[in-house]
């Protein structure tokens, strides 16, 4: 029988798009594997088809290689779609996540995987997934940290303490930053580990800022007191600055709230002089 790896690698080579490869490579400023240029919708569709034939575990465990960027992306997509389709036991799912984590070496692999690992949001698994990714924040590893931030942001942030799905507030007002009726035990547990010095780990800092800015749009009264505390917030200067910038750039905060954020930014700049 022909190995799945042989079939899959040839299929990826056949799907290669040289023109798009240059574009994709340009989006990843860090060192990375050779790029075939397969467009993401095509790669996602191929991953879903592999999962349907139910031989993906054989490929993941024994055969998968990572010569090309798309092979690593595909492996993450297969894990995401496979665990969701089969409703894998959370232990198995987290084992797959742990095995994949060392392969996450740029933002594209990280964010693509985190957006696809939807089993993390299953009600019965949320607490165990949360505990697992909190552990990632203690590694001191740039992409382990970013994986924790983006997984939390994509799969766990918008669930309140009762497990209800929440959306961003339509507009974050001055009243909202003082008090809302929104509570999240998961956010309360995650924040103490998330508020840390990430100096020198840019993609961790970007992940943390993205998480904090989006958390501000969902639970503004939880994040606003932290932002007001400035250097006592616990994050490094770069992460703090990036968070303020992302909130200002968002369409959700009201004009008045953005003015307060801009004042924090000016105060930060004055303190650095």
What does this structure look like?
This protein is mainly alpha-helical and 273 residues long. The protein folds into 2 domains: 1-122, no CATH class; 124-273, no CATH class. The chain is built from 15 helices and no strands. The longest helix is centred in the N-terminal third of the chain and has 18 residues, at 69-86.
Describe, in short, the structure shown.
The chain has 273 residues and is mostly helical. 66% of the residues lie in helices and 0% in strands.
Helices and strands, with pairings:
Blueprint: H1 4-15, H2 18-26, H3 40-52, H4 56-63, H5 69-86, H6 90-100, H7 107-116, H8 126-136, H9 142-156, H10 174-178, H11 185-194, H12 202-218, H13 220-228, H14 237-249, H15 255-272
Helix pairs in contact: 3-5, 5-6, 5-7, 7-9, 8-9, 9-12, 12-13, 12-14, 14-15
How many domains make up the 3D coordinates?
2
- Stretches where pLDDT is under 50 for at least 5 consecutive residues are none
Our measurement of the CA-to-CA distance between the termini, rounded to an integer number of angstroms, reads 68 Å
Order of helices and strands: HHHHHHHHHHHHHHH
Major sheet = none
**Percentage of residues in DSSP E strands:** under 5%
Rg? 20 Å
Tally the helices.
15
The total strand number stands at 0
Q: Which class best fits the helix and strand makeup? A: mainly alpha
Key features of this structure:
273 residues; 2 domains; 0% strand; globular
């Amino acid at each position: 029988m022909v190995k799945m790896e042989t079939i899959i690698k040839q299929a990826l080579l056949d799907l290669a798009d040289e023109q798009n490869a240059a574009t994709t490579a340009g989006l990843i400023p860090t060192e990375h594997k050779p790029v075939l240029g397969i467009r993401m919708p095509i790669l996602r569709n191929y991953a879903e088809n592999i999962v349907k034939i139910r031989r993906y575990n054989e490929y993941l465990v024994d055969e998968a290689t990572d010569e090309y960027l798309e092979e690593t992306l595909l492996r993450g997509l297969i894990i995401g779609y496979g665990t969701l389709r089969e409703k894998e036991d959370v232990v198995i799912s987290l084992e797959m996540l742990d095995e994949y984590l060392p392969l996450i070496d740029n933002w594209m692999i990280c964010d693509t995987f985190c957006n696809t690992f939807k089993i993390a949001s299953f009600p019965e698994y949320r607490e165990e997934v949360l505990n697992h990714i909190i552990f990632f924040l203690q590694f001191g590893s740039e992409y382990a940290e970013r994986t924790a931030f983006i997984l939390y942001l994509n799969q766990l942030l918008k669930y309140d303490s009762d497990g209800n799905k929440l959306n961003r507030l339509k507009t974050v007002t001055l009243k909202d930053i003082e008090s809302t009726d929104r509570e999240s035990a998961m956010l309360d547990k995650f924040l103490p580990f998330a508020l840390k010095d990430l100096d020198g780990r840019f993609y961790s800092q970007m992940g943390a800022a993205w998480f904090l800015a989006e958390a501000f749009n969902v639970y503004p009264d939880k994040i606003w007191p932290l932002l007001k505390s400035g250097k006592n917030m616990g994050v490094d200067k770069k992460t703090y600055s990036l968070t303020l910038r992302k909130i200002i750039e968002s369409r959700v905060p009201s004009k008045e709230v953005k003015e307060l954020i801009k004042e924090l930014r000016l105060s930060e700049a004055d303190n650095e002089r």
